[in-house]
Amino acid sequence: EVQLVESGGGLVHPGRSLRLSCTASGFTFSTSDMSWVRQAPGKGLEWVSTINGYNRDTHYANSVAGRFTLSKDNAKNTVYLQMNDLKPEDTAVYYCNAYAWWGQGTQVTVSG
Predict the structure, then answer these.
(1) How confident is the model at residue 102 (pLDDT cuts 50, 70, 90)?
(2) Which of 5, 55, 61, 112 could pair with 13 in a Cys bridge, judged by C-beta atoms 3.0 to 4.6 Å apart?
(3) DSSP string, 8-30
(4) Closest of 33, 27, 28 to residue 79, by C-alpha
(5) How far apart are CA 21 and CA 5, in angstroms?
(6) Quick check: 42 and 51 in contact, CB under 8 A?
(7) Distance CA 19, CA 63 (A)
(8) If 0-12 CB within 10 Å is exposed, 13-18 middle and 19+ buried, where does residue 111 land?
(9) What dihedral do alpha carbons 98, 101, 103, 109 form, nearest 10°?
(10) 104 in Cβ contact with 41 (< 8 Å)
(11) What would the pLDDT profile of 47-100 be if each residue is shown by its tens digit?
C-alpha cells in the first residue's frame, strides 16, 4: 500500500520559516520524482516544486523560487520542503505527490 505522510505545517508570522516533510512508503522512492502542490483557500491546485528522482534536479514555481528549497533523503524515504521568508499568499494546504498518489495534506498559515 502506497502512503505519503506530510508533516510540519503550522501557523507562522510573515518572514518566518517552516520545513515540511513527506515520508513515503509502498513504492520505489529512490528513483521517483516527488512534488509538492498547494491549494489556497477558495483556489485550485498550484504546483510548487518537483525534485527529479534520478539526478535530484529541482524545479520551482516562480512564486516560490529563491525562498523554497526541496530536498530528498533516500535513506529516510523522505522529501523536505524548506520554506523561508513566508508570505501571507503562501497560506494553503500543502500536498505531497508522487505519480498518481497524494498525501493527506498539511496546513500552512502565514499571518501576523
Answers:
(1) very high
(2) 112
(3) --EEE-TT--EEEEEEEESS-GG
(4) 33
(5) 8
(6) no
(7) 17
(8) exposed
(9) 60
(10) no
(11) 999 999 999 999 999 999 999 999 999 999 999 999 999 999 999 999 999 999
- C-alpha cell at position 41: 483557500
Name residue, grid cell 499571518: 111
Residue 107, C-alpha cell as written in the block:
496546513
| Residues 91 and 9 sit within 8 Å (Cβ to Cβ) | no
* Cα–Cα distance measured from residue 112 to residue 4, given in angstroms and rounded to the nearest whole number: 30
CB 16 within 8 A of CB 87: no
**How confident is the model at residue 112, as a pLDDT?**
86
For residues 83 and 19, the answer to whether their CB atoms sit within 8 Å is yes
Residue 82's DSSP bridge partners are: 19, 69
- Tracing cell 505519503 back to the chain, one arrives at 4
